[in-house]
Write a sequence for this structure.
């Protein structure tokens, strides 16, 4: 694998009603990784651990080559940008421009032109008080705010929450452009299938505080397929076919097969004399559901 921007080793975080981990995770530098999982699966908790906003109960975390929670992390923090899931209501009475004046002092590399350009693209007026901005407007402002120092690692917790479809498209464009230099990394959580499809290079599935797996996006969609198969009555032979995750009878000797190794499954089906009548890609949420079911969690 490529150089890692983030490494988590045996990381656990215990709360009264929630346990995260143990998590072992590598996130590649120079790519977009999307963390996908149901509500309460631990995505935001993971972000907070990476930023040292909460401490792990066990394990070690490295971000951009530095151990989190050890030594002077000022230089590391200047290389990070974090968009929290929810706005901080304590900032409501501040104007956008006042918030910027406050934040930019921490970042010597703050790029005022880039910030202005983003406000223009998103059509945001930063002279408004943050509490007076609409939800989407504030989200766009905050996105510009966390990107203006051009961090090497951008952590975005549900970035498109509250954005209208036009603003959403602008955000996708902005993030694609952000990745162009090749040495930047984005880790984002998202519930929007289309967003993950358009932006992510890698997908990390999470559920109930556990990482279910990390997958290269194109390979994931290529491997996970639904095949409709005419068995000619020899359905029992399907049990020996590799990669099958689910198999249901669809009527008239046709079986609906979900596979996570489409190439191997198709080859074995053909060698056994079965006919594949059609195939479809599986959606991201269906893959997550099947992975969760396999973990016997749902
Ligand atoms: N079944 C549950 N019922 C109520 N709260 C839960 C449950 N599971 C987890 N939580 C809460 O969720 C928190 C962990 O979730 P976290 O915010 O990290 O998840 P998330 O994946 O970001 O969720 P979301 O998609 O809703 O933003 C824990 O602090 C815990 O309090």
């Amino acid at each position: 694998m490529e150089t890692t921007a983030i490494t988590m080793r045996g990381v656990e975080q215990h709360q009264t009603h929630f346990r995260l981990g143990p998590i072992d995770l590598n996130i590649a530098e120079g790519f977009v990784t999307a963390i996908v999982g149901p509500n309460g699966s631990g995505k935001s908790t993971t972000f907070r651990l990476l930023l040292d906003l909460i401490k792990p109960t066990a394990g070690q975390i490295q971000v951009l080559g530095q151990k989190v929670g050890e030594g002077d992390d000022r230089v590391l923090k200047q290389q990070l940008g974090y968009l929290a899931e929810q706005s901080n209501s304590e900032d409501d009475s501040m104007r956008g421009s006042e918030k910027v004046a406050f934040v930019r002092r921490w970042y010597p590399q703050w790029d005022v032109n880039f910030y202005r350009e983003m406000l223009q693209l998103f059509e945001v007026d930063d002279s408004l008080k943050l509490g007076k901005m609409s939800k989407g407007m504030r989200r766009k402002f905050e996105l510009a705010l966390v990107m203006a120092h051009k961090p090497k690692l951008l952590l975005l917790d549900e970035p498109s929450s509250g954005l209208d479809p036009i603003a959403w498209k602008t955000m996708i464009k902005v993030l694609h452009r952000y990745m162009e230099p090749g040495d930047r990394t984005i880790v984002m959580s998202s519930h929007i299938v289309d967003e993950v499809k358009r932006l992510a290079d890698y997908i990390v599935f999470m559920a109930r505080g556990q990482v279910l797996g990390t997958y290269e996006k194109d390979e994931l969609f290529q491997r996970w397929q639904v095949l409709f198969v005419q068995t000619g009555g020899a359905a029992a032979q399907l049990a020996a076919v590799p990669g099958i995750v689910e198999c249901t009878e669809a009527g008239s000797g046709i079986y609906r097969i979900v596979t996570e190794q489409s190439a191997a499954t198709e080859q074995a089906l053909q060698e056994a004399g079965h006919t594949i009548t059609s195939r479809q890609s599986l959606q991201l949420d269906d893959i997550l559901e099947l992975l969760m079911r396999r973990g016997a969690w749902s």
